[in-house]
Amino acid sequence: MKRLFPVMITLFLVLAVVRFEGGIQAAEQYPAKPINFVVPLEAGSDGDILARPIAQRVSAMLGQPIMIVNKPGAGSSIGYREVHDAKPDGYTLGLALATIVTNKLQGIMPYDHRDFTIIGTYATYIPIVVGATKTKRPFKTMTEALSFAKANPEEVSIATSGVGQSWWIATMAFQGGTGLKFNIIPQPGAGAFSITQVSGGHSDLAILALGAAKPQIEAGNVRFLAVFGSKRASPPFDKVPTFKDLGYNIFWESTQAVIAPPKMPKEIADKLAKAFERAANEPDYKKFVAETNAFSFVTTLGKSVDFLDDQRKVARSIMEKAGILKEK
Which residue among 150, 263, 305, 328 sits deepest, i.e. has the most Cβ atoms within 10 Å of its Cβ? Predict the structure, then answer.
């Protein structure tokens, strides 16, 4: 047995070196084939709009196609599960939004952002409020809408994303921040569903991002009424007031992160993080981000996890007040 011990130690060291060198070689060769990028939202939604151009830029840097795969439904958990259960070889990536931290809080998924490899963040959306021009209450200003809602509790309808999703959290923050009661109508998806409801006159208001709402604003089917937070939209929408302008401290954002399956080799994660960081900092992409009323927000790896941890605390508080918190 004493003679075998040195042999076992030597074998262990050899295997460790082989594994280490194999990991380096895999990272050097990566990527050797196309990459799937799972977007857990419908095509044309707020998140989808920003994901496609950054995926194209990273594809050019890595020398392989990155194919967008839309997997909407169940509060984005269908797409998240597909990423979580994939091999951690770098060939399945995904988009994550606020739901990556909220789904576990409301019992939709057994895991959250800490159960994935977080590659980084690249942009954050500040939601807006738009009003229908085809309803019996075509509000011309946010002040007008709030005054009517104060006098008529729960009569003003708001189309928003599914319960627990980012724009739903923004809607709950809006309701709580104004102290008013609205008829909140969650949709089966995100911005693309909400803008359809409000532009068709089926809802008085909608809360979503400017990227999904912009075509209908320009067509005159909806009015841009207010912006969450303290920063106004870029021209030509910079005349629209923020909630801070209106005297309300209402803020929420939906940050877009790149996720990968758990236990991804560090060498591959580093390579992806550098590519996404470089793509997100390209001037033309940052300009595109600004044009959709989003803001450039670039973090990678550990710093991204810290940010999502902080966002989880905020979301947990809102969900607890709404009575949908499932986490003890």
Answer: 305
